[in-house]
Specification:
Elements (H helix, E strand, L loop, with lengths): L1 H9 L6 H7 L2 H6 L9 H4 L10 H19 L9 H15 L1 H10 L10 E2 L7 E2 L1 H4 L5
Antiparallel strand pairs: 1-2
Length: about 140
């Protein structure tokens, strides 16, 4: 919170409630579900409409998505990452809060994923690009 306030002051913006919320990063929001914030679970639990969903599961999914987001933001390779699984995790997290929102994402998403992984490890070892990626590589 202090970092967000400092950023707003440095940019000459008023530290209003709305500006503070907008300035908080994904790391802050995902940390609310981490082990050190276990005391907040009682307050945060009503956000999730799905019964039985556990704080630790949400925390793990958010941690994985934050790591993927950070890899992308730092221009690190993500070809070996399970992108389809991350997409499904995003839909699950959304559905746990709002089934309607998850349905909207599914209906309006133009992204499809191949049934096979982008990079595979053959029995003989080593990594090879899957044929689904070959058409997108420069010649």
């Amino acid at each position: 919170m202090a970092q967000a306030q400092s950023t707003l002051q440095r940019e000459g913006k008023a530290a209003t409630h709305s500006q503070m919320i907008a300035e908080l990063n994904f790391g802050f929001w995902s940390s609310l579900f981490g082990p050190s914030s276990n005391h907040l679970w009682g307050t945060l639990r009503p956000i999730f409409q799905t019964q039985g969903v556990k704080r630790a599961l949400i925390s793990g999914k958010l941690r994985d998505l934050r790591r993927l987001r950070n890899r992308i933001a730092h221009y690190e390779p993500i070809l070996a990452q399970p992108i389809a699984a991350f997409h499904q995790d995003t839909l699950n997290l959304t559905a746990w809060m709002s089934v309607d929102a998850a349905a909207w994402i599914t209906t309006h998403s133009a992204i499809t994923y191949p049934a096979t992984p982008i990079i595979i490890t053959p029995l003989g070892g080593g990594r090879v690009f899957d044929q689904a990626l070959m058409g997108h590589l420069p010649t």
